[in-house]
Specification:
CATH topology of the largest domain in chain A: Dipeptide-binding Protein, domain 3
Distance between the termini of chain B: 7 Å
Organism (chain A): Elioraea tepida
Protein name (chain A): ABC transporter substrate-binding protein
Oligomer: heterodimer
Keywords (chain A): Signal
Largest sheet of chain B: none
Subcellular location (chain A): Periplasm
Radius of gyration of chain B: 24 Å
Shape of chain A: globular
Largest sheet of chain A: 7 strands, mixed
Number of helices of chain A: 18
InterPro entries (chain A): Peptide/Ni-bd (IPR030678), SBP_5 (IPR039424), SBP_5_dom (IPR000914)
Shape of chain B: globular
Number of strands of chain B: 0
Helix content of chain B: over 70%
Chain lengths: 538, 317
């Protein structure tokens, strides 16, 4: 009898060992998102980077992707649907991408150079039958120099930029490849292209590790594993996305077992979540929560000594304690150790004595106190806890003799003002603005703020910073195509930016998410995104 | 009666126009920009301008309003700026969900309010009266948002008896009146019911107390009418006013509660409005408010007709 049981157990073990796919493919992961609606599913998600995280990367692939498999390093790029790429040595506005062979869309059609050209045209060619203005806003802004694509052969494609731009591979992580054949099928049954895209969004077809199984607008999206995926297949069988915009509702949903994972739990709830056995995942995020100075004449922050003093007057460790540890003190746009860190001589730290000395040198003191006006929001995507955080900084600066007044406005309005610049009436005389931003890509991290050509209305150089030295460094970074040399140029730019204290750097978010202990295999990379092929339910 | 009905329906037209116009103006007066629903803040101005033209948001405001009005007259609410989906497809689902929640809240709040009000009105000054009044005041005063969270903490997080959010295990699209779905309705409906419960309690209490002090009740008692018979007379006399109040309350409930629907992630009109406000999604905002206003107008008409039917003394010319 015992022998028979042992034999049965051994047979079972052998079966499990022989079927690793079956053993690792596990469970349904239910995720409570912060978004109030399911991000758009037609291939170019809205809802900021939460959209790319949950309905972009899982359903689609881009030519170039982020390697989200490790937590212990800044997230690098890796080949996605393109195996390799290089700029044309004779024409630096022409890039050649060699595509991955054998990739199929969820509908079974082939991914090839025609599909790439079609996907570039969907957002850049207003004469294309499938051009979709709705996808332009969220896409074109993230690849500002891309102009067109041209097929060379089935597996080679050329992309053209408006000017030599070494940043293009980063930008292309935002252009997801949707299936032309599937869209054509939808178009045949729809009265116009707009309706066809709506039908496509309800039943999308990409090349990603998951396929859409169910879509209920505003309520849920369900993905199932794509067993024909060209890369590492997902371990979970199914992902369910639920929009739960209210932080307490998300926490309650996790604690009551309605979901397995929530984004951004309420900071106050973290101890309770931990006490109930939930795991809190955090990591440094390429996110910056700063005060962006106004550099125009008359602004006290046009003086580098004042900017340095403000940077030195902030107790970032105290702020971290206030947030229950849910931040990383910011000493630059990127953290030390990052390839773009460089070697700045100005060390950002909490040094009130030095801050007072610099202010005195700039002519401020008890007889002539400095007063700053800062535009902030009461809430907003990526804004962390703007009111208590700003009030904490206000108290810090009071201690070095700086009075701070806040102009608190609604998030959407603050966003609009950000595009208009500090000379505009909407700034209402503010000397700084508190808008957080993503810093994954060199353009979004630095170039758009420190290039004089990026002043409003072109981009987000809100403070009208203008310095030929920085313009030259930006141009050098954009025109250096060897990745290592480009990173070195970006490091020089970053170091110079820190030395000139071009921001009041305060915090980096750590992207907290809470998970049931049943969720295994999850990796929290140093990124806004996660790899949903890794986690599973045990 | 037919003339009266027609006149009331015609009254709805200027109300609809005013609601649409006020909503349109408020959205444009408020700081912020509807274009933010479509493009991120870091978009270059050239792109923003192009998309503004694509959506017709660069045209003068009266023309934008006229175009919207023309479409609505043909039954087309347009497309959401944020999602590109037809507004009606999202709005119709949200209305059904809110209706479900409103009716459930009314079924809890109205009978309870009538019962407590009747008891309090007929037993004035007793402990029962004081308890009923205390419950009514609490119901009217307690913040929805807070009560919803307390109920979630108690019944979902601590006891694990009821779900904390959502409109069913698979969403509202496959709704059925079974326990799997109804359990999602209980906490939001109870939360939403406390205000109408309090208002109806106070109204009915006042009505019952006033009617009981009238001379015809004394006459009925003097003639030896049973207690049940007197209650019937009181109910009949209180009904028109009580129905008017309940009708208005049902109107408020159908308007959806932004706070309750947000706390429970209930996909109704409140949540839809909340999202549309933050995104400046003008077509969704205007259509939702217009439809809700029309609901209110229709409900008022139904209440008026019901009052006439119950009390022939109320004449509708």
């Amino acid at each position: 009898m015992i022998t028979r049981s042992l034999l049965a157990a051994a047979s079972l073990a052998a079966l499990l060992a022989a079927a690793p796919g079956a053993a690792t493919a596990q469970g349904t992961i239910r995720i409570g998102m912060t978004a109030a609606d399911i991000p758009l599913t037609h291939g170019q998600p809205d809802q900021g980077f939460e959209g790319n995280r949950f309905t972009g990367i899982p359903l689609y692939n881009a030519l170039v992707e982020w390697d989200l498999t490790r937590a212990d390093r800044p997230t690098p790029l890796r080949p996605g649907l393109a195996l390799s790429w290089e700029v044309d040595p004779n024409d630096k506005t022409r890039w050649v991408f060699r595509l991955r062979p054998g990739v199929k869309f969820h509908d079974g059609s082939d991914f090839n150079a025609d599909a790439v050209v079609w996907n570039v045209r969907k957002v850049l060619d207003r004469d294309a039958p499938h051009f979709d203005p709705r996808q332009v806003g969220v896409t074109a802004t993230r690849m500002p120099t891309l102009r067109r694509a041209e097929k060379i052969d089935d597996l080679t494609v050329a992309l053209f930029t408006s000017e030599p731009d070494s940043i293009l591979p980063f930008n292309l992580t935002n252009l997801f490849m949707a299936s032309p054949k599937h869209w054509e099928a939808k178009r045949a049954a729809a009265p116009n292209a707009e309706a066809a895209w709506n039908a496509f969004a309800a039943d999308p077809s990409g090349t990603g590790p998951f396929r859409m199984a169910r879509f209920v607008p505003r309520e849920r999206a369900e993905f199932v594993r794509n067993d024909a995926y060209w890369g590492q297949k997902a371990k979970a069988d199914r992902i369910v996305l639920l929009p739960i915009p209210e932080a307490n509702a998300r926490t309650a949903a996790l604690l009551s077992g309605q979901v397995d994972w929530i984004e951004a739990p309420a900071p106050d709830a973290v101890p309770q979540l931990r006490a109930r056995g939930m795991r809190i995942e955090t990591n440094t995020q390429p996110h910056v929560w700063p005060w962006q100075p106004c550099f125009v004449d008359g602004s006290p922050l046009a003086d580098v000594r004042v900017r340095k003093a403000i940077n030195l007057g902030i107790d970032r460790e105290g702020l971290k304690t206030l947030l229950g540890g849910m931040m990383v003190p910011a000493v630059g746009t990127v953290q030390p150790g990052h390839p773009w860190w460089g070697n700045p001589s100005f060390q950002i730290r909490h040094d009130p004595a030095e801050a007072r000395r610099l202010l005195a040198e700039a002519g401020y003191g008890p007889q002539r106190p400095l007063t700053l006006k800062v535009q902030i929001s009461a809430s907003g995507s990526g804004q962390m806890q703007p009111l208590p955080m700003n009030e904490f900084v206000q108290q810090n600066l009071k201690a070095i003799g700086v009075n701070v007044e806040f102009d608190v406005i609604e998030w959407n309005a603050l966003f609009t003002n950000w595009r208009r610049g500090c000379r505009d009436a909407s700034a209402r005389g503010a000397h700084a603005i508190n808008v957080s931003f993503a810093a994954m890509d060199p353009f979004f991290a630095m170039l758009r703020f420190w290039d004089s050509k990026m002043a409003p209305p072109v981009s987000n150089n809100w403070g009208f910073f203008s310095d030929p030295r920085f313009d030259a460094m930006v141009a050098e970074a954009r025109q250096t195509f060897d990745p290592a040399a480009r990173d070195a140029a970006l490091a020089r730019l970053h170091a110079a930016g820190v030395d000139e204290a071009l921001f009041i750097w305060i915090a980096h978010d750590v992207s907290p998410r809470a998970m049931s202990p049943r969720v295994r295999g999850f990796v929290q990379p140093q990124s806004w995104f996660v790899d949903l092929t890794l986690p599973f339910i045990q | 009666m037919l003339t009266y009905l027609l006149r009331r329906v015609l009254y709805a037209v200027p109300i609809a126009l005013s609601v649409g116009l006020v909503c349109f103006l408020l959205v444009h007066i408020a700081p912020g920009d509807p274009i933010n629903a479509i493009v991120p803040a870091d978009a270059p101005q050239e792109l923003v301008d192009q998309i503004r033209r694509d959506y017709g948001l660069d045209r003068p405001l009266p023309i934008q309003f006229g175009i919207w009005l023309g479409r609505v007259a043909l039954g087309d609410f347009g497309l959401s700026l944020a999602t590109g989906r037809p507004v009606w497809s999202d709005l119709s689902v949200a209305i059904v969900n809110t209706l479900r929640l409103a009716v459930a809240a009314a079924m809890i709040g109205f009978p309870l309010g009538c019962l407590l009000g009747a008891l309090a009105g007929s037993l004035q000054g007793t402990a029962i009266d004081k308890i009923a009044v205390a419950l009514a005041v609490t119901g009217v005063s307690v913040p929805h948002y807070w009560l919803g969270m307390v109920l979630v903490v108690l019944f979902s997080v601590t006891l694990g008896w009821l779900p904390a959010m959502g409109a069913g295990p698979g969403g509202s699209s496959d709704w059925a009146w079974d326990w799997e779905h109804v359990q999602h309705l209980i906490l939001p409906a109870v939360t939403l019911s406390v205000i109408p419960m309090g208002i109806v309690t106070r109204t009915v209490r006042g009505l019952v107390a006033e009617i009981l002090n009238q001379e015809f009740i004394l006459t009925l008692r003097g003639k030896g009418l049973s207690r049940g018979g007197i209650v019937l007379h009181v109910m009949k006399n209180a009904a028109p006013n009580a129905i008017a109040v309940m009708g208005l309350q049902l109107g408020y409930l159908m308007g959806g509660s932004i706070l309750v629907e947000t706390v429970f992630s209930w996909p109704g009109t409140g949540l839809l409005l909340n999202n549309a406000i933050f995104q400046r999604d003008l077509p969704v905002l205007q259509a939702t408010i217009l439809v809700l206003a029309m609901f209110f107008v229709a409900l008022n008409l139904i209440v008026d007709l019901a009052q006439t039917a119950l009390d022939p003394r109320i004449r509708r010319a």
